[in-house]
């Protein structure tokens, strides 16, 4: 009895603390730089400048840690400059406020939706709010106000592989086939089973020389719907996680897709699905189309599906877009890096894993160690 209760408690806590699921990837904060202190005109006294607000991208920091730091207080405030007084004519400058953020964080100003900064340079601080100048002759000895705004910090995943597809295509099942030892991947026979992005490591050791330990990270994203690039179905919050991915795997249900039986939701066959996903990716960000994309034609175990997959696979190797009506034709058709027919449910994924590893190797080739003569001076100790 005690044991079963303990086991229940353990599985429950595992559900709550499943760290592979990205529970939150945005944080709204109010930012206020310090205002300048007042000057003292009679004595030519200068007010101190208000403090600035800086962000510093840190490689090892997680978005979870950032959220934790702002759990109680959602304000970033820098100190005001001190006013000039008869005792201290030159007011002290306000202290700057520096906030550590995970590498890759993007800050968007709430009112204007303007991009304030992209924190991509590790350990280099980025000024986001300037403090006001202290009172002096030029501003009539009146301290100036510091910048003040509300912003949203966005965390974008940087997976090696991003899974993209319509709902129910079998993305999560495919991930399970790639990482069978993972127990925390949710699969179900209805659309929108995956509601939050999930990062899973796929072990590649069996493909490595000497079975060296190596894995590629993969982001399983909630299914996209038509209009995702215009944020339909919260498409932006999923597509954003592909921006920093090395490669994309497009998963297509070869038997076709229909969101619901309603007449407004049209049935899309495999080719149309590819075209529509292509259109969503290019409409969101053309850079996504330029990444290596592998096409997975899934569910080949269903009656008649293997033949359909073979035909579409051949077509997708060439000018697959030629057969489409004008309105479905993407303006930047994808040239697929690879095409694989799978039955993810039966863990039949052909050469998919190998292809993903090859793409990764092509993107991140091992560099030969060059022993430059400059470095071979007597004072240099080379430790391998
Ligand atoms: N017959 C067959 N069914 C499959 C295959 N792959 C997935 N399915 C089924 O398709 C349904 C949807 O699978 P999921 O993996 O949850 O699909 P998904 O793309 O992750 O769906 P969302 O999370 O809703 O976007 C489940 O019932 C799976 O068992 C396959 O290769 N063959
Ligand atoms: Mg899923």
UniProtKB/TrEMBL annotation:
SUPFAM superfamilies: Obg GTP-binding protein N-terminal domain, P-loop containing nucleoside triphosphate hydrolases. Residues 159-361 form the OBG-type G domain. One of its GO terms (biological process) is ribosome biogenesis. Residues 21-158 form the Obg domain. Pfam families: GTP1_OBG, MMR_HSR1. The keyword Endoplasmic reticulum does not apply. The keyword tRNA-binding does not apply. GO terms for cellular component: mitochondrion. InterPro entries: G_OBG, GTP-bd, GTP1_OBG_dom, GTP1_OBG_dom_sf, OBG_GTPase, P-loop_NTPase. Keywords: GTP-binding, Nucleotide-binding. One of its GO terms (molecular function) is GTP binding. PANTHER family: DEVELOPMENTALLY REGULATED GTP-BINDING PROTEIN-RELATED, GTP-BINDING PROTEIN 10. This is OBG-type G domain-containing protein.
């Amino acid at each position: 009895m005690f044991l079963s209760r303990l086991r229940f408690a353990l599985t429950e806590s595992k559900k709550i603390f499943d760290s592979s699921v990205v529970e939150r990837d945005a944080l709204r904060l109010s930012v206020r730089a310090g205002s300048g202190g007042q000057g003292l005109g009679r004595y030519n006294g200068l007010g101190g400048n208000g403090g600035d607000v800086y962000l510093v991208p840190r490689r090892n920091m997680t978005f979870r840690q950032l959220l934790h730091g702002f759990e109680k207080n959602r304000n970033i405030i820098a100190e005001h400059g001190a006013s000039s007084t008869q005792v201290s004519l030159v007011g002290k400058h306000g202290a700057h406020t520096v906030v550590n953020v995970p590498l890759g964080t993007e800050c968007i100003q709430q009112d204007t939706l303007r991009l304030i900064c992209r924190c991509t340079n590790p350990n280099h601080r980025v000024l986001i709010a300037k403090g006001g100048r202290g009172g002096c002759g030029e501003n009539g000895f009146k301290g100036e106000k510091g910048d003040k705004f509300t912003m949203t910090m966005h965390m974008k995943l940087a997976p090696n592989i991003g899974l993209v597809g319509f709902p129910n295509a079998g993305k999560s099942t495919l991930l399970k086939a790639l990482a069978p030892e993972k127990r925390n991947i949710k699969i179900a026979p209805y659309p929108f089973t995956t509601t939050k992005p999930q990062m899973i490591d796929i072990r590649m050791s069996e493909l490595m020389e000497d079975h060296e330990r190596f894995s590629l990270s993969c982001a399983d994203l909630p299914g996209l719907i038509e209009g995702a690039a215009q944020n339909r179905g919260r498409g932006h919050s999923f597509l954003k996680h592909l921006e920093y991915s090395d490669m994309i795997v497009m998963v297509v249900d070869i038997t076709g897709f229909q969101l619901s039986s309603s007449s407004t939701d049209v049935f899309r066959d495999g080719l149309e699905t590819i075209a529509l996903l292509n259109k969503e990716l290019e409409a969101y960000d053309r850079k996504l189309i330029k990444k290596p994309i592998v096409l997975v034609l899934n569910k080949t175990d269903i009656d008649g599906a293997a033949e359909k997959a073979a035909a579409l696979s051949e077509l997708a190797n060439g000018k697959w877009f030629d057969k489409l009506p004008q309105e479905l034709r993407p303006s930047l058709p994808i040239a697929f890096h690879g095409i694989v027919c799978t039955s993810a449910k039966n863990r039949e994924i052909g050469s998919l894993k190998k292809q993903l590893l090859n793409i990764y190797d092509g993107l991140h080739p091992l560099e030969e160690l060059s022993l430059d003569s400059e470095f071979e001076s007597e004072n240099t100790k080379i430790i391998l």
